[in-house]
Every structure is written in C-alpha cells, then in structure tokens.
Amino acid sequence: MTEEVQVWVASLDVTDERYDTLARVLPSEEKDRAASLTPIAARRFVVARGILRTLLSGFTGTSAAKLRFS
Fold it and tell me: Cα separation of 12 and 55, whole Å?
C-alpha cells in the first residue's frame, strides 16, 4: 500500500453559479446547518463542504451527494 498525503487548497470565493452547483451536492442536514449560520459563514460552509464532497467523490467513485460522514 502506498502511503500518500495530499493537501488541497481551494478558494471559498466562488461565483453564484459555482455556489449553486456545490450546494446541490449537500444533504439536507448540511443545508440545515448552513441555514443556522450568518449569511457569510453559511456561504463559506456550503462552498467548503461542496468542494470536500466533490474531491472525495473523485477519489471514491461515490456520488458527492451520497457521501456520508460520521
């Protein structure tokens, strides 16, 4: 087994179109959590979680929307 660590850096400043795309992959629990935050924090949360889900989807082959975290 190859041991590898990858560090990804992504901007949380995205267009409204990109935001909408990322928001679509969040489950209702994460959307509810975002709704409880201030507008700026909510947008950052949605973008960060959407990017995380998109990256992990590429590694696992599982749909970004179907990934579950515990």
Answer: 14
